[in-house]
C-alpha cells in the first residue's frame, strides 16, 4: 500500500498525519495481532483451564447431550481455531506470502498448523472403552499444549518486529499474564488435591448425580480467572491497536 503525504514532517500536525498513515498501512497487522491475542490468551487459555479442572463440576448439566465442561471446552477451542485461521489468512494477505523466516513467523506457522489439525485429529477419537483412547488423549493433550506454547512464544517474538510498532514494555504485560496463568493452574490443582483428599477420607466416589467437593471454589476461581484474563486482553489489544503511537519507533527494526 502506498500512502501519499504532502507533509514535510516538520510540524506536529505533519508528524501526527504521518503516524496516522503508518497506522492505516498496518491495519491488517494490528487485526492479526489482536485476533491472535484474543484467540490464545483469551479463549484457548480458558478452554484449557475448563478441560483440565472441571470434568467433575456441573456434572448434572448437559448441553446437546454433552457434559457442560466438554461443551464449553469444545466451543472455546472452535472459536480459537476460527480466529487463528482468519488471523493467519489476514497476515498472509498483508505480506503477500511468507516474507521473512524470523522466529515469529516460524513459531506462528507451526502453532497454526497444529491448531488446524487438532479438530481433524478429534474426528478420529476412539470410543471411551477403546484401549486406543488413552493414546488419543495423550496425542490431543500434547498437540494442544504444544500449539498453545508456540503461539505464546510467537507473540513474544512479535514485539521487536518493526511492523508491529510495539513498545518493549509489553513483554512485561505478557510475562505477567503467564505468571498469572501458571499460578491459576497451581490454584486449581490444589483444589483438586483437596477434593480428592475429602473424597478419600469419606470413602466417596465420583458421581454423575452431584459435583465433587470444592466445586464451588473452582467455579469462583474460574469466574475470577475470566475477569482478570479479560483485563489482560483489553490491555494487550489496546497496545496492539494503537501500534506505532505506543511503540514510538522503539522496536528493533526487524521486518515482519
Question: What do you see in this structure?
Answer:
This protein is mainly α. The chain contains eight helices and two strands; from the N terminus they run ααββαααααα. The chain has helices spanning 12-25, 27-53, 68-95, 103-122, 133-158, 170-202, 215-242, 244-247, and strands at 62-63, 66-67. It has a two-stranded antiparallel ribbon. The longest helix is centred in the C-terminal third of the chain and has 33 residues, at 170-202. The radius of gyration is 22 Å and the shape is globular. Residues 1-6, 13-19 and 249-253 have low confidence and may be disordered.
What is the helix tally?
Answer: 8
What order do the strands of the largest sheet run in, or round the barrel if closed? 1-2
The largest sheet is: 2 strands, antiparallel
Helix content: over 70%
Derived from helix and strand composition plus strand pairing, the structural class reads mainly alpha
Oligomer: single chain
Radius of gyration of CA atoms, rounded to a whole number: 22 Å
Write the element-wise H/E pattern from the N-terminal end onward: HHEEHHHHHH
How many strand units? 2
| Overall pLDDT score | 82
Shape assignment: globular
Unreliable stretches: 1-6, 13-19, 249-253
Strand content: under 5%
Calculate the terminal CA-CA distance, rounded to whole Å: 15 Å
Amino acid at each position: 500500500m502506498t500512502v501519499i503525504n504532502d507533509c514535510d514532517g516538520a510540524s506536529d500536525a505533519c508528524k501526527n498525519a504521518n503516524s496516522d498513515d503508518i497506522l492505516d498501512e498496518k491495519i491488517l497487522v494490528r487485526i492479526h495481532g489482536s485476533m491472535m491475542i484474543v484467540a490464545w490468551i483469551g479463549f484457548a487459555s480458558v478452554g484449557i483451564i475448563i478441560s483440565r479442572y472441571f470434568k467433575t463440576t456441573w456434572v448434572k448439566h448437559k448441553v446437546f447431550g454433552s457434559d457442560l465442561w466438554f461443551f464449553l471446552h469444545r466451543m472455546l477451542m472452535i472459536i480459537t481455531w476460527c480466529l487463528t485461521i482468519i488471523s493467519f489468512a489476514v497476515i498472509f494477505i498483508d505480506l503477500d506470502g511468507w516474507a521473512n523466516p524470523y522466529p515469529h513467523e516460524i513459531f506462528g506457522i507451526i502453532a497454526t498448523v497444529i491448531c488446524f489439525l487438532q479438530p481433524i485429529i478429534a474426528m478420529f477419537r476412539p470410543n471411551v472403552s477403546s484401549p486406543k483412547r488413552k493414546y488419543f488423549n495423550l496425542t490431543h493433550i500434547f498437540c494442544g499444549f504444544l500449539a498453545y506454547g508456540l503461539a505464546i512464544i510467537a507473540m513474544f517474538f512479535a514485539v521487536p518486529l518493526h511492523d508491529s510498532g510495539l513498545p518493549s514494555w509489553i513483554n512485561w504485560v505478557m510475562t505477567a499474564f503467564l505468571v498469572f496463568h501458571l499460578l491459576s493452574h497451581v490454584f486449581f490443582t490444589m483444589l483438586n488435591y483437596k477434593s480428592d483428599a475429602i473424597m478419600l477420607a469419606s470413602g466417596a466416589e465420583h458421581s454423575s448425580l452431584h459435583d465433587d467437593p470444592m466445586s464451588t471454589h473452582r467455579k469462583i476461581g474460574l469466574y475470577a480467572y475470566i475477569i482478570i484474563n479479560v483485563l489482560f486482553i483489553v490491555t494487550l489489544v489496546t497496545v496492539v491497536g494503537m501500534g506505532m503511537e505506543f511503540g514510538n519507533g522503539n522496536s528493533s527494526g526487524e521486518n515482519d
